């Protein structure tokens, strides 16, 4: 059993500073009393922490206005607010075909975004790193932020990552993402890079800003091309020994599923199968360029019988997937996320209706409102958490 580090004055000071910054990130101007109520700190400690953070440039004290225009007896309360442009974080979604980078301020608000494609899936490691670096610089340029003001970076990749940030490389596909990104960006830019599995970040992102806000037991399934899951149990993100928690390869042995293909993949391929037959469908107008998942959803919404049959097959399959996950983990909520989530709300009724057939503990099912930003949202949140936990060790260079 690993013992917790002793509660030294330095550790308590670090934890207190992180708690105050976390509170200020989600608040506007606050008083010392409000800081005390939110963090549990004594008045003396709250004042000390606020003054320390102010001296370091993380927060600023606002000019007091007595009763905001009226009369107020005695000394007015001191008010503080986060210096949200004291530094920046980067959230990255590094997939097989492209990299997306988001620049966010210390409140987590997106200031810039860029996406660049990889030439092919199996490009050399140094080329993949170069594309990620170029994407990051473009996003920073678009936001007006300096690379020197980046305090932390979190990158989501489509491979298991353990709690120490090491990539599990037991499959060739996972090896594509073991490119030394942490070391490369530290050497090139001086950035601290945190690696995390993309589905894990999707779970963090949706619990922060999506359908799972406030839910402590949730599974978020990235469901576009391939299925992968991020697991939060009692408010804690699960990694497993090697980072493999949430891998869904076991679905190959689940009756009526048989693989880990996602909603977009299935809709596209089942539409191609339908077009190879003689069925009458409005999907035929897309045949020359290829039917995509969004075409199937749109056609179903317009009443196309073939498209509706395809989505019904998808819904039954996803009900089996959710049922299997619910039987293993018993979450309160399962969220369908990724780019396909923009349309997948059409499937919710059919999935929910069938769930009781596949599990004795059916959860609520929802679609994430974050769309294809779900991974970068989680990456931003993870980077902000790191900044707040290490604020006393970070030097601010951005103008306030």
TrEMBL record:
One of its GO terms (biological process) is regulation of DNA-templated transcription. It comes from the Bacteria. GO terms for molecular function: DNA binding. Residues 19-61 form the HTH iclR-type domain. InterPro entries: ATPase_NBD (IPR043129), ROK (IPR000600), Tscrpt_reg_IclR_N (IPR005471), WH-like_DNA-bd_sf (IPR036388), WH_DNA-bd_sf (IPR036390). Gene3D superfamilies: 3.30.420.40, Winged helix-like DNA-binding domain superfamily/Winged helix DNA-binding domain (1.10.10.10). CDD domains: ASKHA_ATPase_ROK. Belongs to the ROK (NagC/XylR) family. This is ROK family protein. The lineage of its organism: Bacteria, Bacillati, Actinomycetota, Actinomycetes, Micrococcales.
């Amino acid at each position: 059993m690993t013992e917790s580090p002793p509660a030294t004055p330095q550790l308590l000071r670090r934890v207190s500073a992180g708690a105050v910054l976390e509170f200020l990130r989600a608040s506007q101007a606050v008083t010392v009393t409000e800081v005390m109520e939110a963090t549990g700190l004594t008045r003396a400690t709250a004042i000390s922490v606020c003054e320390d953070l102010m001296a370091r440039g993380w927060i600023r004290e606002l000019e007091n206005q007595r009763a905001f225009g009226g009369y107020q007896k005695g000394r007015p309360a001191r008010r503080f607010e986060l210096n949200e442009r004291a530094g920046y974080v980067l959230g990255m979604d590094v997939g097989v075909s492209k990299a997306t980078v988001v620049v966010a301020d210390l409140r987590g608000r997106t200031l810039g975004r860029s996406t660049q494609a990889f030439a092919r899936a199996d490009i050399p490691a140094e080329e993949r790193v170069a594309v990620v670096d170029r994407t990051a610089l473009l996003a920073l340029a678009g936001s007006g932020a300096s690379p020197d003001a980046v305090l932390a970076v979190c990158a989501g990749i489509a491979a298991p990552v353990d709690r120490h940030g090491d990539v599990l490389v037991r499959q060739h596909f996972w090896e594509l993402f073991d490119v030394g990104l942490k070391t490369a960006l530290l050497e090139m830019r001086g950035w601290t890079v945190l690696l995390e599995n993309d589905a894990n970040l999707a779970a963090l992102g949706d619990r922060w800003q999506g359908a799972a806000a406030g839910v402590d037991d949730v599974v978020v399934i990235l469901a576009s091309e391939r299925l992968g899951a991020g697991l939060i149990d009692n408010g804690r993100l699960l990694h497993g020994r090697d980072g493999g928690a949430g891998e869904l390869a076991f679905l190959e042995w689940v009756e009526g599923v048989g693989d880990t293909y996602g909603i977009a993949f299935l809709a596209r391929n089942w539409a191609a199968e339908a077009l190879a037959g003689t069925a009458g469908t409005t999907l035929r107008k897309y045949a020359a360029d290829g039917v995509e998942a969004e075409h199937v959803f749109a056609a179903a919404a317009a009443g196309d019988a073939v498209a509706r049959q395809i989505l019904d097959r998808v819904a039954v399959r996803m009900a089996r997937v959710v049922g299997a996950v619910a039987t293993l983990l018993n979450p309160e909520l399962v969220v369908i996320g990724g780019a396909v989530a923009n349309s997948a709300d059409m499937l919710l009724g059919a999935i929910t209706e069938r769930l009781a057939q596949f599990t004795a503990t059916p959860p609520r099912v929802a679609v994430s409102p974050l769309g294809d930003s779900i991974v970068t949202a989680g990456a931003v949140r993870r980077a902000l958490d790191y900044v707040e936990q290490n604020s006393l060790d970070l030097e601010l260079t951005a103008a306030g």
